Amino acid sequence: MTWLVTGGAGYIGAHVAHAMVDAGLDVVALDNLSSGRRGFLPDTVPLGWVSVTDQDDVRDVMEENAITGVVHLAAFKYAGESVKRPLHTWRQNLDGTLSVLGAMQDLGIDRIVFSSTAAVYGTPDVDLVTEETPTHPESPYGSSKLAAERAIVEQAAARRSAGAPLRHTALRYFNVVGSSAPGVYDSSPHNLFPLVMDALSRGDAPRIFGTDYDTPDGTCVRDYVHVADVAAAHVVAAQALDSGEDLRTTYNLGSGTGTSVREIVDACIEAAGVDVAPVLTGRRPGDPARIVASGRRASHDLDWRMRHTVRDMVDSAWAAHPAAGGPARG
Ligand SMILES: NC(=O)c1ccc[n+]([C@@H]2O[C@H](COP(=O)([O-])OP(=O)(O)OC[C@H]3O[C@@H](n4cnc5c(N)ncnc54)[C@H](O)[C@@H]3O)[C@@H](O)[C@H]2O)c1
Ligand SMILES: O=c1ccn([C@@H]2O[C@H](COP(=O)(O)OP(=O)(O)O[C@H]3O[C@H](CO)[C@@H](O)[C@H](O)[C@H]3O)[C@@H](O)[C@H]2O)c(=O)[nH]1
Prior knowledge:
Blueprint: E1 2-6, H1 11-22, E2 26-30, E3 47-48, H2 55-64, E4 69-72, H3 79-84, H4 86-107, E5 111-117, H5 140-161, E6 167-173, E7 175-177, H6 192-202, E8 207-209, E9 221-222, E10 224-226, H7 227-242, E11 250-253, E12 259-260, H8 261-272, E13 279-281, H9 296-301, H10 310-320
Parallel strand pairs: 1-2, 1-4, 2-3, 4-5, 5-6, 6-11, 7-10, 8-13
Antiparallel strand pairs: 9-12
Helix pairs in contact: 1-7, 2-4, 4-5, 6-8, 8-10
Bound molecules: nicotinamide-adenine-dinucleotide (NAD) and uridine-5'-diphosphate-glucose.
Protein backbone atom coordinates (compact mmCIF):
# COMPACT_ATOMS: atom_id res chain seq x y z
CA MET A 1 0.00 0.00 0.00
CA THR A 2 1.49 3.33 -1.01
CA TRP A 3 -0.39 6.61 -0.69
CA LEU A 4 0.18 9.57 -2.96
CA VAL A 5 -0.32 12.90 -1.22
CA THR A 6 -0.89 15.63 -3.83
CA GLY A 7 -0.08 19.06 -2.45
CA GLY A 8 2.14 17.15 0.00
CA ALA A 9 4.70 19.95 0.20
CA GLY A 10 2.04 22.42 1.35
CA TYR A 11 1.08 23.40 4.86
CA ILE A 12 -1.67 20.82 5.45
CA GLY A 13 -0.31 18.25 2.96
CA ALA A 14 3.05 18.12 4.74
CA HIS A 15 1.29 17.61 8.07
CA VAL A 16 -0.71 14.79 6.48
CA ALA A 17 2.47 13.26 5.02
CA HIS A 18 4.23 13.40 8.41
CA ALA A 19 1.21 11.90 10.18
CA MET A 20 0.88 9.07 7.64
CA VAL A 21 4.60 8.25 7.89
CA ASP A 22 4.37 8.30 11.69
CA ALA A 23 1.44 5.85 11.40
CA GLY A 24 3.60 3.47 9.36
CA LEU A 25 2.06 4.17 5.94
CA ASP A 26 4.20 4.44 2.80
CA VAL A 27 3.91 7.92 1.34
CA VAL A 28 4.94 9.63 -1.90
CA ALA A 29 4.25 13.33 -2.49
CA LEU A 30 3.25 15.11 -5.67
CA ASP A 31 3.56 18.88 -5.78
CA ASN A 32 4.49 21.62 -8.26
CA LEU A 33 5.93 23.70 -5.40
CA SER A 34 3.82 26.71 -6.41
CA SER A 35 3.29 27.45 -2.74
CA GLY A 36 4.73 24.32 -1.08
CA ARG A 37 8.30 23.65 0.01
CA ARG A 38 10.37 20.49 -0.37
CA GLY A 39 11.74 21.05 3.11
CA PHE A 40 8.28 20.68 4.66
CA LEU A 41 8.22 16.98 3.75
CA PRO A 42 9.95 14.24 5.71
CA ASP A 43 13.31 13.50 4.01
CA THR A 44 12.22 9.91 3.43
CA VAL A 45 9.19 10.90 1.33
CA PRO A 46 9.91 11.04 -2.42
CA LEU A 47 8.51 14.05 -4.29
CA GLY A 48 7.11 14.00 -7.83
CA TRP A 49 7.63 17.62 -8.88
CA VAL A 50 4.77 17.91 -11.39
CA SER A 51 1.41 19.65 -11.73
CA VAL A 52 -1.83 17.86 -10.95
CA THR A 53 -3.25 19.52 -14.05
CA ASP A 54 -1.05 17.32 -16.29
CA GLN A 55 -2.67 13.90 -16.32
CA ASP A 56 0.25 12.15 -18.08
CA ASP A 57 2.73 13.45 -15.50
CA VAL A 58 0.40 12.47 -12.66
CA ARG A 59 0.00 8.98 -14.09
CA ASP A 60 3.79 8.62 -14.47
CA VAL A 61 4.34 9.49 -10.80
CA MET A 62 1.60 7.08 -9.75
CA GLU A 63 2.91 4.28 -11.94
CA GLU A 64 6.59 4.71 -11.00
CA ASN A 65 5.69 4.56 -7.31
CA ALA A 66 3.06 1.78 -7.49
CA ILE A 67 0.49 4.04 -5.84
CA THR A 68 -2.58 2.33 -4.32
CA GLY A 69 -4.42 5.32 -2.81
CA VAL A 70 -4.51 9.10 -3.16
CA VAL A 71 -4.99 11.96 -0.71
CA HIS A 72 -5.70 14.87 -3.03
CA LEU A 73 -4.90 18.24 -1.46
CA ALA A 74 -3.19 20.16 -4.28
CA ALA A 75 -5.28 23.26 -4.96
CA PHE A 76 -5.49 27.04 -5.07
CA LYS A 77 -7.06 27.72 -1.68
CA TYR A 78 -7.83 31.41 -1.42
CA ALA A 79 -11.54 32.22 -1.48
CA GLY A 80 -10.99 36.01 -1.75
CA GLU A 81 -8.29 35.75 -4.43
CA SER A 82 -10.34 33.21 -6.37
CA VAL A 83 -12.94 35.92 -7.05
CA LYS A 84 -10.20 37.82 -8.93
CA ARG A 85 -8.75 34.69 -10.57
CA PRO A 86 -11.66 32.34 -11.36
CA LEU A 87 -10.05 30.62 -14.37
CA HIS A 88 -6.84 29.89 -12.50
CA THR A 89 -8.87 28.58 -9.57
CA TRP A 90 -11.02 26.27 -11.69
CA ARG A 91 -7.96 24.95 -13.54
CA GLN A 92 -6.09 24.05 -10.38
CA ASN A 93 -9.06 22.77 -8.43
CA LEU A 94 -11.33 21.09 -10.98
CA ASP A 95 -8.96 20.24 -13.85
CA GLY A 96 -6.44 19.03 -11.27
CA THR A 97 -9.01 16.70 -9.74
CA LEU A 98 -10.10 15.39 -13.15
CA SER A 99 -6.45 14.59 -14.00
CA VAL A 100 -6.03 12.74 -10.74
CA LEU A 101 -9.25 10.78 -11.34
CA GLY A 102 -8.23 10.02 -14.94
CA ALA A 103 -4.79 8.78 -13.94
CA MET A 104 -6.34 6.67 -11.17
CA GLN A 105 -8.75 5.14 -13.66
CA ASP A 106 -5.91 4.36 -16.11
CA LEU A 107 -4.01 2.53 -13.37
CA GLY A 108 -6.97 0.98 -11.54
CA ILE A 109 -6.26 2.87 -8.29
CA ASP A 110 -9.38 2.52 -6.18
CA ARG A 111 -9.29 4.85 -3.17
CA ILE A 112 -9.20 8.62 -2.72
CA VAL A 113 -9.48 11.06 0.18
CA PHE A 114 -10.33 14.53 -1.13
CA SER A 115 -9.52 17.80 0.56
CA SER A 116 -12.67 19.91 0.52
CA THR A 117 -13.74 22.96 2.40
CA ALA A 118 -16.26 24.85 4.49
CA ALA A 119 -16.43 27.27 1.56
CA VAL A 120 -18.88 24.90 -0.20
CA TYR A 121 -21.56 26.06 2.27
CA GLY A 122 -21.26 29.82 1.63
CA THR A 123 -23.07 31.73 4.38
CA PRO A 124 -25.30 29.18 6.08
CA ASP A 125 -28.27 30.35 8.13
CA VAL A 126 -27.80 27.66 10.77
CA ASP A 127 -25.80 27.76 13.99
CA LEU A 128 -24.04 24.49 13.24
CA VAL A 129 -23.39 23.33 9.70
CA THR A 130 -23.90 19.61 9.15
CA GLU A 131 -23.14 17.62 6.01
CA GLU A 132 -26.86 17.92 5.16
CA THR A 133 -26.80 21.73 5.20
CA PRO A 134 -27.41 22.95 1.63
CA THR A 135 -24.31 23.99 -0.28
CA HIS A 136 -24.22 27.54 -1.67
CA PRO A 137 -20.62 28.41 -2.49
CA GLU A 138 -19.97 32.13 -2.82
CA SER A 139 -16.59 32.10 -4.55
CA PRO A 140 -14.92 30.31 -7.46
CA TYR A 141 -12.88 28.53 -4.79
CA GLY A 142 -15.96 27.08 -3.09
CA SER A 143 -17.70 26.31 -6.41
CA SER A 144 -14.67 24.56 -7.87
CA LYS A 145 -14.22 22.42 -4.75
CA LEU A 146 -17.91 21.46 -4.79
CA ALA A 147 -17.65 20.58 -8.49
CA ALA A 148 -14.58 18.46 -7.76
CA GLU A 149 -16.51 16.61 -5.02
CA ARG A 150 -19.28 15.98 -7.55
CA ALA A 151 -16.83 14.74 -10.18
CA ILE A 152 -15.49 12.20 -7.68
CA VAL A 153 -19.00 10.94 -6.85
CA GLU A 154 -19.96 10.63 -10.53
CA GLN A 155 -16.68 8.94 -11.44
CA ALA A 156 -17.21 6.47 -8.57
CA ALA A 157 -20.69 5.66 -9.91
CA ALA A 158 -19.30 5.08 -13.40
CA ARG A 159 -16.48 2.90 -12.10
CA ARG A 160 -18.93 0.89 -9.99
CA SER A 161 -21.02 0.23 -13.10
CA ALA A 162 -17.88 -0.79 -14.96
CA GLY A 163 -16.96 -3.23 -12.19
CA ALA A 164 -13.92 -1.23 -11.01
CA PRO A 165 -15.20 0.56 -7.88
CA LEU A 166 -13.64 3.71 -6.51
CA ARG A 167 -13.94 4.19 -2.75
CA HIS A 168 -13.84 7.83 -1.75
CA THR A 169 -14.52 10.50 0.81
CA ALA A 170 -14.31 14.29 0.93
CA LEU A 171 -13.17 15.97 4.14
CA ARG A 172 -14.59 19.47 4.39
CA TYR A 173 -12.12 21.28 6.61
CA PHE A 174 -13.01 24.44 8.44
CA ASN A 175 -10.23 26.93 9.29
CA VAL A 176 -7.05 24.93 9.67
CA VAL A 177 -4.36 26.56 11.82
CA GLY A 178 -1.45 25.75 14.14
CA SER A 179 1.52 23.50 13.57
CA SER A 180 2.76 20.13 14.75
CA ALA A 181 5.22 18.83 12.14
CA PRO A 182 8.83 19.97 12.52
CA GLY A 183 9.52 23.21 10.66
CA VAL A 184 6.15 23.24 8.86
CA TYR A 185 4.09 26.41 9.09
CA ASP A 186 1.39 28.21 7.13
CA SER A 187 3.19 30.70 4.91
CA SER A 188 0.01 31.79 3.13
CA PRO A 189 -0.02 35.43 2.08
CA HIS A 190 -3.78 35.75 2.59
CA ASN A 191 -4.88 33.87 5.73
CA LEU A 192 -5.47 35.39 9.16
CA PHE A 193 -2.90 33.50 11.26
CA PRO A 194 0.15 34.01 9.03
CA LEU A 195 -0.79 37.63 8.26
CA VAL A 196 -1.19 38.51 11.94
CA MET A 197 2.04 36.76 12.87
CA ASP A 198 3.96 38.31 10.00
CA ALA A 199 2.72 41.77 11.03
CA LEU A 200 3.53 41.28 14.71
CA SER A 201 6.98 39.89 13.95
CA ARG A 202 7.74 43.03 11.91
CA GLY A 203 6.48 45.21 14.76
CA ASP A 204 3.41 46.25 12.72
CA ALA A 205 -0.23 46.24 13.76
CA PRO A 206 -2.34 43.35 12.42
CA ARG A 207 -5.45 44.23 10.43
CA ILE A 208 -9.03 43.19 11.08
CA PHE A 209 -11.20 43.12 7.95
CA GLY A 210 -14.67 44.25 8.94
CA THR A 211 -16.08 45.16 12.36
CA ASP A 212 -19.73 45.64 11.37
CA TYR A 213 -20.83 42.03 10.93
CA ASP A 214 -23.89 40.72 12.75
CA THR A 215 -21.74 38.84 15.27
CA PRO A 216 -21.13 39.39 19.01
CA ASP A 217 -18.09 41.65 18.51
CA GLY A 218 -18.77 42.68 14.92
CA THR A 219 -15.89 40.64 13.43
CA CYS A 220 -16.22 37.41 11.44
CA VAL A 221 -16.61 34.14 13.33
CA ARG A 222 -14.85 30.98 12.16
CA ASP A 223 -14.40 27.41 13.33
CA TYR A 224 -10.66 27.00 13.89
CA VAL A 225 -9.26 23.46 13.91
CA HIS A 226 -5.72 22.33 14.69
CA VAL A 227 -3.80 20.94 11.72
CA ALA A 228 -2.61 17.96 13.81
CA ASP A 229 -6.23 16.91 14.37
CA VAL A 230 -6.99 17.39 10.67
CA ALA A 231 -3.95 15.29 9.68
CA ALA A 232 -4.99 12.53 12.11
CA ALA A 233 -8.42 12.29 10.42
CA HIS A 234 -6.68 11.65 7.09
CA VAL A 235 -4.71 8.79 8.58
CA VAL A 236 -7.90 7.18 9.90
CA ALA A 237 -9.64 7.69 6.54
CA ALA A 238 -6.73 6.15 4.62
CA GLN A 239 -6.54 3.20 6.98
CA ALA A 240 -10.30 2.66 6.75
CA LEU A 241 -10.16 2.62 2.94
CA ASP A 242 -7.12 0.29 3.06
CA SER A 243 -9.09 -2.15 5.19
CA GLY A 244 -11.95 -2.20 2.70
CA GLU A 245 -14.36 0.00 4.66
CA ASP A 246 -16.64 2.36 2.80
CA LEU A 247 -16.74 5.90 4.15
CA ARG A 248 -19.46 8.54 3.83
CA THR A 249 -19.26 10.89 0.85
CA THR A 250 -18.53 13.96 2.99
CA TYR A 251 -17.34 14.77 6.50
CA ASN A 252 -17.10 18.17 8.17
CA LEU A 253 -13.91 18.66 10.12
CA GLY A 254 -15.16 21.34 12.49
CA SER A 255 -15.20 21.83 16.25
CA GLY A 256 -18.70 23.15 16.92
CA THR A 257 -17.20 26.29 18.44
CA GLY A 258 -16.91 29.70 16.82
CA THR A 259 -14.09 32.14 17.52
CA SER A 260 -14.08 35.72 16.27
CA VAL A 261 -11.29 37.37 14.32
CA ARG A 262 -10.96 39.84 17.19
CA GLU A 263 -10.45 37.00 19.70
CA ILE A 264 -7.79 35.38 17.50
CA VAL A 265 -5.95 38.66 16.95
CA ASP A 266 -6.02 39.43 20.69
CA ALA A 267 -4.70 35.92 21.49
CA CYS A 268 -1.86 36.34 18.98
CA ILE A 269 -0.95 39.75 20.40
CA GLU A 270 -0.95 38.32 23.93
CA ALA A 271 1.18 35.34 22.89
CA ALA A 272 3.64 37.70 21.20
CA GLY A 273 3.86 39.76 24.38
CA VAL A 274 3.64 43.03 22.48
CA ASP A 275 1.58 46.13 23.11
CA VAL A 276 -0.14 46.93 19.85
CA ALA A 277 -3.71 47.70 18.78
CA PRO A 278 -5.07 46.11 15.59
CA VAL A 279 -5.99 48.32 12.66
CA LEU A 280 -9.71 48.08 11.91
CA THR A 281 -10.43 48.17 8.17
CA GLY A 282 -13.37 47.49 5.84
CA ARG A 283 -14.76 44.07 4.96
CA ARG A 284 -12.86 41.71 2.65
CA PRO A 285 -15.05 40.63 -0.33
CA GLY A 286 -16.39 37.07 -0.21
CA ASP A 287 -16.19 36.63 3.59
CA PRO A 288 -19.21 34.98 5.27
CA ALA A 289 -20.03 36.54 8.67
CA ARG A 290 -20.09 33.26 10.57
CA ILE A 291 -19.52 29.62 9.79
CA VAL A 292 -19.21 26.91 12.43
CA ALA A 293 -19.61 23.17 11.93
CA SER A 294 -20.68 20.06 13.67
CA GLY A 295 -17.99 17.39 13.43
CA ARG A 296 -20.30 14.67 14.77
CA ARG A 297 -20.26 12.46 11.71
CA ALA A 298 -16.47 12.57 11.54
CA SER A 299 -16.14 11.90 15.26
CA HIS A 300 -18.21 8.75 14.79
CA ASP A 301 -16.44 7.37 11.71
CA LEU A 302 -12.98 8.98 11.73
CA ASP A 303 -12.20 9.30 15.43
CA TRP A 304 -12.30 13.07 14.82
CA ARG A 305 -11.65 14.92 18.08
CA MET A 306 -10.52 18.41 18.95
CA ARG A 307 -7.44 17.40 20.89
CA HIS A 308 -6.18 21.00 20.87
CA THR A 309 -7.50 24.33 22.13
CA VAL A 310 -7.39 27.70 20.39
CA ARG A 311 -4.52 28.54 22.74
CA ASP A 312 -2.61 25.48 21.43
CA MET A 313 -3.32 26.64 17.90
CA VAL A 314 -1.94 30.12 18.54
CA ASP A 315 1.08 28.91 20.53
CA SER A 316 2.05 26.18 18.06
CA ALA A 317 1.64 28.55 15.09
CA TRP A 318 3.91 31.06 16.82
CA ALA A 319 6.47 28.43 17.72
CA ALA A 320 6.67 27.33 14.08
CA HIS A 321 6.78 30.85 12.62
CA PRO A 322 10.27 31.58 11.24
CA ALA A 323 10.45 34.93 13.02
CA ALA A 324 9.70 33.28 16.35
CA GLY A 325 12.74 31.02 16.14
CA GLY A 326 11.19 28.23 14.08
CA PRO A 327 13.42 26.87 11.34
CA ALA A 328 12.68 28.56 7.97
CA ARG A 329 13.16 25.70 5.57
CA GLY A 330 12.70 25.65 1.87
N1 LIG B 1 -5.87 26.08 5.06
C1 LIG B 1 -7.17 25.91 5.32
O1 LIG B 1 -7.70 26.45 6.29
C2 LIG B 1 -8.01 25.02 4.45
C3 LIG B 1 -9.35 24.84 4.77
C4 LIG B 1 -10.16 24.03 3.96
C5 LIG B 1 -9.59 23.36 2.90
N2 LIG B 1 -8.28 23.53 2.61
C6 LIG B 1 -7.72 22.78 1.49
O2 LIG B 1 -6.57 22.07 1.95
C7 LIG B 1 -5.67 21.87 0.88
C8 LIG B 1 -4.28 22.27 1.31
O3 LIG B 1 -4.30 23.63 1.72
P1 LIG B 1 -3.05 24.31 2.43
O4 LIG B 1 -3.59 25.22 3.45
O5 LIG B 1 -2.05 23.29 2.83
O6 LIG B 1 -2.49 25.20 1.23
P2 LIG B 1 -1.04 25.25 0.58
O7 LIG B 1 -1.09 26.32 -0.47
O8 LIG B 1 0.00 25.35 1.63
O9 LIG B 1 -0.93 23.81 -0.09
C9 LIG B 1 -1.33 23.53 -1.40
C10 LIG B 1 -0.23 22.70 -2.03
O10 LIG B 1 -0.64 22.32 -3.34
C11 LIG B 1 0.42 22.59 -4.25
N3 LIG B 1 -0.18 22.85 -5.54
C12 LIG B 1 -1.00 23.88 -5.89
N4 LIG B 1 -1.35 23.75 -7.19
C13 LIG B 1 -0.75 22.60 -7.64
C14 LIG B 1 -0.73 21.95 -8.89
N5 LIG B 1 -1.37 22.45 -9.96
N6 LIG B 1 -0.02 20.80 -9.00
C15 LIG B 1 0.65 20.29 -7.94
N7 LIG B 1 0.68 20.89 -6.74
C16 LIG B 1 -0.02 22.04 -6.60
C17 LIG B 1 1.14 23.81 -3.67
O11 LIG B 1 2.48 23.93 -4.13
C18 LIG B 1 1.07 23.49 -2.19
O12 LIG B 1 2.16 22.69 -1.79
C19 LIG B 1 -6.24 22.66 -0.30
O13 LIG B 1 -6.94 21.77 -1.13
C20 LIG B 1 -7.20 23.63 0.35
O14 LIG B 1 -8.23 24.00 -0.52
C21 LIG B 1 -7.47 24.35 3.35
O1 LIG C 1 -5.18 39.98 7.95
C1 LIG C 1 -6.30 39.46 8.03
C2 LIG C 1 -6.62 38.22 7.38
C3 LIG C 1 -7.90 37.71 7.53
N1 LIG C 1 -8.82 38.35 8.27
C4 LIG C 1 -10.16 37.76 8.47
O2 LIG C 1 -9.99 36.51 9.13
C5 LIG C 1 -11.06 35.64 8.79
C6 LIG C 1 -10.48 34.33 8.33
O3 LIG C 1 -9.82 34.54 7.09
P1 LIG C 1 -8.82 33.49 6.43
O4 LIG C 1 -7.78 33.05 7.41
O5 LIG C 1 -8.33 34.06 5.15
O6 LIG C 1 -9.75 32.22 6.22
P2 LIG C 1 -11.05 32.00 5.35
O7 LIG C 1 -11.28 33.08 4.34
O8 LIG C 1 -12.15 31.75 6.34
O9 LIG C 1 -10.69 30.69 4.51
C7 LIG C 1 -9.89 29.63 5.07
O10 LIG C 1 -10.77 28.67 5.62
C8 LIG C 1 -11.65 28.09 4.68
C9 LIG C 1 -12.51 27.08 5.43
O11 LIG C 1 -13.33 27.74 6.34
C10 LIG C 1 -10.82 27.38 3.63
O12 LIG C 1 -11.65 26.79 2.68
C11 LIG C 1 -9.88 28.33 2.93
O13 LIG C 1 -9.05 27.59 2.04
C12 LIG C 1 -9.01 29.00 3.96
O14 LIG C 1 -8.22 30.00 3.31
C13 LIG C 1 -11.86 36.37 7.69
O15 LIG C 1 -12.97 36.99 8.29
C14 LIG C 1 -10.91 37.45 7.19
O16 LIG C 1 -11.53 38.61 6.69
C15 LIG C 1 -8.53 39.55 8.89
O17 LIG C 1 -9.37 40.15 9.55
N2 LIG C 1 -7.26 40.06 8.76
